[in-house]
Amino acid sequence: MIVRVEIVLGLAFALAISGCAGQNAHDLLNRKAVTVPASDIAATHEIFVATTRQPATKDPRQVFDGDRSLTTSYARVDVTVPKVHQVGAIERAKGSADSNPAKQFTATDVVHYKDASQFAKAVGADISMRGDRALVFVHGFNNGFDDGVYRLTQIAHDTKYPGTPVLFSWASRGKTTGYIYDKDSSTAARDDLEATLRMLAKTRVKSIDIVAHSMGTWLTMEALRQLAITGDRDLGGKIGYVILASPDIDVDIFKKQMIRYGKPDKPFAVLLSADDRALKLSSLISGDKPRVGDYGNAADLASYGVAVVDLSQAKGGDSLNHAKFADNPILVQLLGNRLRTPAGLASDEPDPAQLNNIGQGLGKAVGSVAEVIITTPFKVLTVATGG
Fold first, then answer.
1. What percent of the chain has pLDDT over 90?
2. Domains and CATH numbers, the chain
3. d(CA 251, CA 101)
4. β-pairing, 64-82 with 41-55?
5. 29: DSSP letter
6. Rg, the chain, Cα only
7. For the segment 307-316, what is each residue's pLDDT rounded down to a tens digit?
8. Contact 166, 49 (CB under 8 A)
9. For 282, what's the count of Cα atoms within 13 Å in the CB-facing half-sphere?
10. Residues 64-97: b if buried by 16+ CB within 10 A, e if exposed
11. pLDDT tens digits along 113-152
């Protein structure tokens, strides 16, 4: 009977969180180039990549697969965004079909760097050209290499981020049944993420902003904890925003991580939602221990020096409500307005008047009434997103 219960729970978990990535195939490159008029393309983004995945030998279209590497590989992926793109969406070709750049996100080129030195030179030049800022995105569970590339492209495009996008892609299997494998893979990548952040800090970058999602927040917190242990938690003041979206971290572990890291000097935000179905099932797998991403005591988390953004009443882009920060148009705009102001100039407390103006305008556009509640160590702000 115990075995039957475990199997049922495993299947329920797999089915419930199958939408985290949303793609059964993880092909990134087209079989053949698809040419469309330039007028159909909204923008081309250069996504720099540091990854602990193995190169994909069985299916080169994936570029990197879900197997772990003991070393970090480096690349750049050029991605086009179609004019028909809607904020918050990632328009994808179905299955393993070739992408049409006029309708879907399309990876047009991949450049591989032979070592860390060559990558550092290339990414450093891009950072200098774009304004001395870098946005590091760390993806979550059940993500193929393609999912991370396209999600960061969407975030950079929709937020109008004024800097260099850098994807840290750890070796997720990209399968709903791979939760334990993924957790181990994310843990194994801690040193690699730390080394990548240190590499970026040695460029002319002035601010390294970090956005991590789901299980990627565990990896991010572990890397930040390691930096703190060395006595250089902010990398000479270069760590900017830290945004943890839907953190799949045990609440007690997160508190211990924050105690070691210390109260942040720059804006540090936790985005949570009480209706995050993926995290509820993650909690079930973990012995009914609450996860940070659906924790009900925002003031408790804020006491560690973080801003807690409760998205419970905001609508998600899918039934799981696990990626609201990126797939809800209003939240993408709120995120973008925050990221476009350098962290060193940003207040720990957002301007409520500005937030309400954004919220009211976009709330009317989507025809919904909701609130975003921001709990800081000092006060609670309510952002109306409709009415």
1. 70
2. 2-384 (3.40.50)
3. 42
4. antiparallel
5. B
6. 20
7. 999 999 888 8
8. yes
9. 32
10. bbbebbeebbbbbbebbbbeebebbebbbbeeee
11. 999 999 999 999 999 999 899 999 999 999 999 999 999 9
